[in-house]
Amino acid sequence: MTASAQTLSPGGAQPAADPAPAKARPAFRILGALSASHMVNDMMQSLIVAMYPILKGNFALSFAQIGFITLTYQLTASLLQPFIGLVTDKRPRPYSLPVGMFFTLVGLLLLGFAPNYPMLLLASAFVGVGSSIFHPESSRIARLASGGRHGLAQSLFQVGGNMGTAIGPLLAAAFIVPFGQGSVAWFSLAALVGAAMLLQVSRWYSAHHVAISRSAKAAPAAPYPRRVVIGAVLVLLVLIFSKYFYVAGISSFYTFYLIERFGLSVQSAQVHLFIFLFASALGTIFGGTVGDRIGRKPVIWVSILGVAPFALLLPHADLFWTTVLTIIIGLVLSSAFSAILVYAQELMPGKVGTVSGLFFGFAFGMGGLGAAVLGVFADRTSIDYVYQTIAWLPLLGLVAALLPKEKRRA
């Protein structure tokens, strides 16, 4: 682990001179801890979405109000993450990770005992703050522990989060639906487990930080002119918009769609949501690892645009084919983010925290904005019409053709 850490800079950039890149090895113990804590973090976030049918009934909420719950925690994370990433690029904060998990713990406790809608929004905001602290610094440490296999490291980190998101609906169906809103507070115990794992990660990072800093004399130059980098980042943000606006429609309203269109029970709809999210978790691991071998751009192209035919078919399918199509969509679409994030980090070497904060924050923001906008849209039209409309979003994957050709490192 020491060897792999010392070959990388504190910003996660490739050093100007790497004397023995063949000897670098990923620190799988650290990557495993990051992935597991990411699973805990995102599982607790997904409990909010999984509870929507319960909250809708308990507080007589409209679809727009449900969408604004998502907007609250995602927008909180969206606004804070780029700032936190910028600050930690200049001065890393290893022990901020357990602090972020503490905010999520408080959010879950508030969610379990919230007596009214404003308190639900406050609870969601605490969860958003926890995520905003967790993601930029964790992504930096994942890159530091990668041993040069940056796509693999980001995929391992991301797959933990996606697995946590997938588990949330199952836990809601098994515990929260039968035992009520207050039972979600018990899941705050998982936050304590996550904080314990992150404390170990923080100690590893703190112990290696001095050696890492000394090994990096200067960040390498950007591989493209500033104008090209700005244009490429804008294209990547358009792709993030396409992906997360579409995912917001699936994750926030899929249970309602299944209940309305096919007459499923809440528990059965939650199981179908788990199937989609589990497929997304499996797909995540391929984006980074395949990108390490063939380049990020082909993965980005296929993962966004390749979903379009299946998304267009989804609103017209029966229950069996709806399940099949959502599995394919989850597998293919989820491979995009790891490739996009590593591509962006390579566009701006030495600014891993800033890049991670920007892209995680924008992804959270688009997810929250999508949920709010689509919630209002669903109130005025129907859930079915929403699904027909968002089916066109993956076609924005065509803009990936504007990305510059990757420059292979020696």
From TrEMBL:
A GO CC annotation given for this chain: plasma membrane
InterPro entries attached to this UniProt entry: Bacilysin_exporter_BacE_put (IPR022324), MFS (IPR011701), MFS_dom (IPR020846), MFS_trans_sf (IPR036259)
Residue ranges crossing the lipid bilayer per the database entry: 59-83, 95-113, 119-135, 156-179, 185-207, 228-259, 271-291, 298-314, 320-343, 355-379, 385-403
GO MF: transmembrane transporter activity
Keywords: Membrane, Transmembrane, Transmembrane helix
Low complexity bias locations: 10-20
Entry keyword Transcription: no
SUPFAM superfamilies: MFS general substrate transporter
Region (Disordered): 1-20
Domain Major facilitator superfamily (MFS) profile: 30-409
Pfam families from the UniProt entry: MFS_1
Name the UniProt record assigns to this protein: MFS transporter
